[in-house]
## 1
Amino acid sequence: RDVKSAVSDCRAAVQMALEGRISRMDVEMPVGADYSIEKGNGRGGKRKGGGRGRLADLASDGDATAADGMPTMDQLERSDRELARLFVEMFQPLGGEHISVVFRDEGLAGTARQRWKGDAGAECRVLAVDRKGKRSSNGMGGGGKKKKKNMGFAAKMAAEIEGDGASGAFALPDGTEVALFVTPGPKELIAVERICSQVGMGTCVILLNARLSKVDNFGTDDAKELFVEKFESVFHLAAAPQEGAPGCLLHRAYPSEWILARKPKVGSPKTIATYPQRPTLEQCAEAYDSIEITDMEKTTDNVIDNVASWFK
């Protein structure tokens, strides 16, 4: 129904996965969800919502939205940062020195350090895959353009994160028991693959909003196997393939099955199908075509990528 219930269900799913000794987790929340954790607009007051804000409420405290109604980049970054903060608090019993939060670049990491400074519930090590301090709006890390050698996708990505700086390849601090990778893109996933190999299954690695279903090229067959087959989708709440099931969402909370649901114009989302594994586009389309929807509804349904607006 709202952010608070989604977070509560996510916590329960993660706990169940930990009890099942799963140490490779993927968590995906709605794009731009407002968790109402950070104080707003510098005036010292807590943002509206008190932790129970609507997922649709993306513009509280005067924040502007983009012209097309989608969240701005600042809102997206804040949403991802707040989600990471929730997970840091979840693992606080381990001790902050055993929790590593990894952002794409130093700019994002620096903002998190500033926001979480002095917060007893946010004690952790905040790191960046790209430690050169540069920001990128496309999620691919920082740095200026460089002429690349003629090499494959994976090699190019690995060269960017491992061969450019005197500090060497990214590595987790010794003693890390839980590593949270925040919105990693294709380049960062190269580092995640290497980290998983280095630390073994004894270190819990959690991807937050990696949007793995939208990654077209993992670089290698081994990387694809890791992220598609070995990372467990512990909690997922996002849009279903809209070309097959417009106006529908996909939800999964470990260890339950996957749910395909449709949000009618009035009322809560209604389950239209369940699956033991993540459904394909074809399966979603088949389930959607089997339900009865009036012509009026079909013409007014919007093709959207952000499920946040469905939770009111």
## 2
Amino acid sequence: MSAGRKNNSTNKDFNTPPKYVEAVMEFFDGKLDLDPCSNKFSLIKAKRTISLPEDGLLCSWNEYKTIFINPPYGRYNKTSIYTWLDKAQSVNSHFKSEILFLIPVAPNTKHFKNIIFKYACGICFLEDTRLKFWSEGKEMKKGAPFDACFIYFGQNYDKFSQVFSKYGKVFKI
């Protein structure tokens, strides 16, 4: 299950669409340190990428100042979006890292209630209601069966709002 919906796809690599990759890179001034959820087709170009079989949750994020995460949306190896957000919140709190997430909108979930609403700085609800992810280097034909949002942990809400308001409605949390 993913954000209250059944995952009907066997595909495990849902890559961030190019226009959002550009927004992420603009937000980080072209200097992205870590992508712990990468794969060989990812359009995100971080200094350090982590792809399966290496587990991005098990690696230290402490030395990275800018992090982008498009995590697995279902359960994987007994982890969930909650696990990724929990680690990000801790890293942001202790090391002041700037962290962006691309995740499904699901405000009724534990991760929204216990982490995002309590610790995130901003949220952008995307206007793309059926976001078309990329897979194996090309846009997928079907859009996602959920709305998506960017979640921001950091200290620069004004810049987050400036960059991401082009793509949807931005709110300070």
## 3
Amino acid sequence: MPHIMDTEPLFKKSRILKLYDLYEYQCIMFMFDYLSLNLPKSFEGVFIANKDLPNSRLTRQSNLIHIPQIKSQFSRKLPYYCVPSIWNEWARSIPNDHSRSEMKRLFKNTKLSEYPELVNCNNLFCRQCNQYQ
């Protein structure tokens, strides 16, 4: 049986984001450009802030992007739903008053800081890990 190694420390050491993190990065940069009005005119009005909805009240969620109601699990994977979801999660934790380059650096550093530096293998039968003990 081949040894399956956790690759996150290698990604951290190389300062490279994992595939899903790259996807999140692209979603966040897209929304940043959308909110900065740096996208083609065809994207205008695709997403709506919660504060711009009819009958909305000012709350902590007012500046977040409205996430539409969906009826299927398939719809959760579509950009119309997942891009605002990813943006809102990010916007809750990080103030978005940064420049584009600062936002890129902040996202990458935040994600890389979440990766472990060492591999923790708890498999007692792993020859590769146990040879150093």
## 4
Amino acid sequence: MKPIFETCEPRPEVLKGELREDIFAARLRDVIENRAEDVYGKPGVFFQNTFPTIGLRDLLSETLGRLTGKKPNAKPIMRLETAFGGGKTHSLIALYHATRNKVTAKMVEGFVDPSHIPPRPIRLVAGIVGSDMEPAVGFLHNDTGIRTHTLQGEIAHQLRGREGYEMVRVADEGKTGVGTQVFDHLVGDEPCLIMLDEMGRFLRDASSIACPGNPKVNLAETTIAVLLS
């Protein structure tokens, strides 16, 4: 058997010493806000530099199949379980590009059946990263000037901007939960993808935040109630 030094040739940027290690820090929010490095931010470059693992192919097939109606019986909720550095954020970025941006069959060749590609970008896509949220002071959205404090507030704002946030403003400012009816109004009859990452980090921070209307209940508890609804 030949050694790896003979069978694998490093990419040109590696040989030239031009590869920066910081580009390997995948951040879903950077991709959503269109400020990520090209290797993550541009769909064509991203998929070109991504290996189509079985897990990633299954995730794209199930999710896109559900959203496009090609696989109506696909799971409505999927949980990604990998070790640290196992590719969860990378997989979420792949989902974001495949749903929110216009991708071609050639871009995702080997990743998913071309018939599963949405005919047009899906409008209702939210990617919540718990470690980016600030339960104590809120997360300021520069585009609208709105500061979200809760999971439901962030989801509503990402899905429908100011209009969506107004549906949950009272609950967000009061740090109280919301029921399924609110999400029914937020989503309506459109295909919708909500991705949650690093929720454990958010819940840890939120456990020390009391709800204004009921000091005996903390924000972590109301967040879990929202997730279970």
